[in-house]
Amino acid sequence: QKEVEQNSGPLSVPEGAIASLNCTYSDRGSQSFFWYRQYSGKSPELIMSIYSNGDKEDGRFTAQLNKASQYVSLLIRDSQPSDSATYLCAVNKGGSTLGRLYFGRGTQLTVWP
Amino acid sequence: DARVTQTPRHKVTEMGQEVTMRCQPILGHNTVFWYRQTMMQGLELLAYFRNRAPLDDSGMPKDRFSAEMPDATLATLKIQPSEPRDSAVYFCASGLVASGNTIYFGEGSWLTVV
User: Fold this and answer.
1) Contacts of residue B102 in chain A, CB cutoff 8 Å?
2) Closest approach of chain B CAs to the CA of A45, in angstroms?
3) How many CB atoms are closer than 10 A to CB B22?
4) What would the mean pLDDT of B27-46 be, rounded to a whole number?
5) Mean pLDDT of the region B10-17
6) What are phi and psi for residue B85, nearest 5 degrees?
7) What's the rounded Cα separation, in Å, for the pair B11 and A112?
């Protein structure tokens, strides 16, 4: 079983729609969860982090965490063509200490005008 | 604008040659990671350091890969001898324990071994 699994995609949504990206993780002791965005040919960049159960909103982005279900999601509201990228879910298994980050394979999102 | 700097950005080399990739972490960051990204495997952690000491290099093929931090401003990843299967993008990332668990990636070194 992989440490972090993401819905394989690709995901295609029209401009203005809500894009929903999902991720599950295997280690119940994981404490820190991240969403990175990676444009083609570029490096991953952090867009959201979440540490507690529930929702965390930042502009058009909302991260949701459910530790009981070992599930993390990212919602992108009012999707824009510039959101087209691969989204990587990452999980820190090292408790509250910065340690080894496990990444999912990523979900490729395309937002069409 | 603080950022992680990697060199070289692109490298094409012949099988059997030695390859050295260098990384300058963000000033003040005490944790440095080396990741490799391929289409097949995604992002894989090769090794990471805290305060220049290696904490985990279990993801690295020990027979040909080595990683070091000669000083706080330089991390190196060396492949000797290189093989075509080493072709990938190698990312360095750095973070600071006191700032939570956020890590920042460099732009990557794109390696092609022919």
Assistant:
1) 34, 46, 49
2) 7
3) 16
4) 92
5) 97
6) -70, -10
7) 34
